[in-house]
């Protein structure tokens, strides 16, 4: 049998950690498989995707700026359609299918870090209303969270999430946070605040209940000031690197037929790379 290959397609793509993650799993499972980077300009993306199979690929990860186009050019599942973006493609019977694995990356990471997170009573507070917030909100709804407060600088974008996902979602402005945090069992940062090179995310977490869980999608730096503040209060936390690793699992399984595990060794490998 010939080598099965997948790739990550983006523009630019050199920052992607996907080759490191999938390369680790390929070696760990001793597979005759390959995972490559493909730098593809927006104007060349549709043609690249149509010829994915003849280029020798069984599927691909999709990163900025192609995720919306990938959705249009494939048969999306419910997650990709709901999020409005596809980040994982696979070929089956000559057809190109897609999903959005940020949804399960987010919930899988929480399941791993705080197994009883859905059982803690209270509401969810999601900071941000961009692309990753859509995946987070969809994941929360999938897992039965009945009240999700989306807090965003631009209120219209939070309203848009409410329209997209229905009655479970309430939108609020940033200055509503002091009223929302005491009722929260989960606080999620999906904004880019706190990321290296961006303004800090300065929040007073003192009013969060002691059983609240705090998670940050930002993974550079690994320990954001939000997570540090949550740990200082001894709250349960889940970091953004965990989500990044968990979102990669499904693609690998679809392309190479083995469900890989997020191990401490893999975390260390990617952590070392992020620290460079
Ligand atoms: P996006 O679509 O560009 O959305 C950015 C969000 O951040 C918007 O809600 C925006 O608010 C808010 N924001 C940006 N600057 C702000 C500021 N100065 N003050 C207040 N709010 C601000 O980005 P995204 O794709 O959702 O990604 C967001 C973050 O999540 C990035 O750091 C990304 O690396 C991370 N991420 C991590 C993973 C993972 O696997 N760990 C996966 C996906 C994304 P406005 O609407 O008001 O502009």
What does this protein structure show overall?
- The chain is α/β, with parallel strands linked by helices.
- The chain contains eleven helices and twelve strands.
- The strands form two sheets. It has a six-stranded mixed sheet. The chain has a six-stranded parallel sheet with strand order 9-8-7-10-11-12, sandwiched between helices.
- Helix 5 packs across helix 6 and helix 5 crosses helix 10.
- The structure holds NADP nicotinamide-adenine-dinucleotide phosphate.
- NADP nicotinamide-adenine-dinucleotide phosphate (NAP) binds at residues 102, 105, 128-133, 152-154, 157, 190-193, 195, 199, 217-219, 240, 243-244, 247.
Q: Can you give keywords for this protein?
A:
6-stranded mixed sheet; alpha/beta; 6-stranded parallel sheet; binds NADP nicotinamide-adenine-dinucleotide phosphate; 12 strands; single chain; 276 residues
């Amino acid at each position: 049998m010939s080598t099965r290959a997948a790739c990550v397609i983006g523009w630019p793509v050199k920052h992607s950690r996907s080759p490191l993650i999938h390369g680790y799993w390929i070696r760990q499972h001793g597979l005759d498989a390959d995972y490559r980077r493909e730098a593809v300009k927006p104007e060349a993306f549709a043609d690249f995707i149509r010829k994915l199979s003849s280029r020798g690929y069984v599927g691909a990860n999709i990163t900025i700026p192609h995720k919306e186009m990938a959705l249009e050019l494939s048969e999306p599942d419910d997650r990709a359609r709901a999020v409005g973006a596809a980040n994982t493609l696979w070929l089956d019977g000559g057809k190109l299918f897609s999903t959005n694995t940020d949804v399960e990356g987010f919930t899988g990471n929480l399941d791993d870090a705080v197994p009883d997170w859905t059982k803690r009573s209270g509401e969810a507070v999601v900071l941000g209303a961009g692309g990753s917030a859509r995946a987070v909100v969809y994941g929360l709804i999938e897992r039965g969270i009945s009240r999700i407060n989306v807090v965003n600088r631009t209120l219209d974008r939070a309203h848009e999430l409410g329209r997209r996902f229905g009655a479970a979602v309430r939108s609020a402005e940033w200055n509503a946070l002091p009223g929302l945090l005491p009722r929260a069992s989960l606080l999620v940062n999906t904004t880019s605040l706190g990321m290296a090179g961006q303004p800090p995310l300065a929040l007073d977490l003192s009013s969060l209940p002691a059983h609240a869980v705090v998670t940050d999608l930002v993974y550079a730096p690994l320990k954001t000031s939000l997570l540090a503040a949550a740990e200082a209060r001894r709250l349960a936390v889940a970091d953004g690197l965990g989500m990044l690793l968990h979102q990669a699992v499904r693609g690998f399984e679809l392309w190479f037929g083995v469900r890989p595990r997020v191990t401490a060794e893999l975390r260390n490998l990617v952590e070392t790379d992020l620290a460079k």
